[in-house]
Amino acid sequence: PASDSASTRPGPSGAETAATSPAAGPAGAPAASPKASAPEVSPPASRPARRPARKGWTVCAGSFREQAAAQKYAQRLSKKGLPARVSRVDLGDKGVWHRVCLGNFSSLAEARAKSKVWEQKKLIRASYVLPLR
């Protein structure tokens, strides 16, 4: 029945053993009510501070482990008239990477639109948009 505080289940040797419900107290003691054990939580005094506004967005056209490879790709994009720069990023366990980023856009929509234009013109292959840091 649902009111039983103990159930049986197979033990390591296959024999059934009694298991006590987590709500049941020591043998002979009444079960503790869930409200009695739950800590009281008061609402926060005020909302947490908002993150500072983003500085803008950039299009990442490539990411390289080797700085020389990133520089070479950035130079190739610059010769095509794109505003390329290399940014060093430490990703902790993943190591240090050198991103080739293009432009500085005030909105995410603007950065995505420009990225799409550059991809359609085949100036870059694949890209993703990142917040400026």
Ordered list of secondary-structure elements with their pairings:
Layout: E1 6-10, E2 16-20, H1 34-37, E3 57-64, H2 67-79, E4 84-90, E5 96-105, H3 108-120, E6 128-131
Antiparallel strand pairs: 1-2, 3-5, 3-6, 4-5
Molecular structure report:
The chain is an alpha+beta fold. It is 23% helix and 29% strand. It is built from 3 helices and 6 strands, in the order E-E-H-E-H-E-E-H-E. It has helices at 34-37, 67-79, 108-120, and strands at 6-10, 16-20, 57-64, 84-90, 96-105, 128-131. A 4-stranded antiparallel β-sheet has the order 4-5-3-6. Strands 1-2 form a two-stranded antiparallel ribbon. Strand 4 and strand 5 form a beta hairpin. The model is unreliable at 2-25 (pLDDT under 50).
Key phrases:
133 residues; disordered N terminus; 3 helices; 23% helix; two-stranded antiparallel ribbon; single chain; alpha+beta; four-stranded antiparallel sheet
- Helix share, percent: 10-25%
- Name the strands of the widest sheet in spatial order: 4-5-3-6
Terminal-residue CA separation = 61 Å
What fraction of residues sit in β-strands?
25-35%
The SSE string, one letter per element, is EEHEHEEHE
Shape: globular
Helical segment count = 3
Radius of gyration: 30 Å
Task: State mean pLDDT (0 to 100 scale).
Answer: 76
Give the tally of β-strands: 6
Structural class computed from helices and strand pairing: alpha+beta
The largest pleated sheet is described as: 4 strands, antiparallel
Uncertain regions spanning at least 5 consecutive residues: 2-25
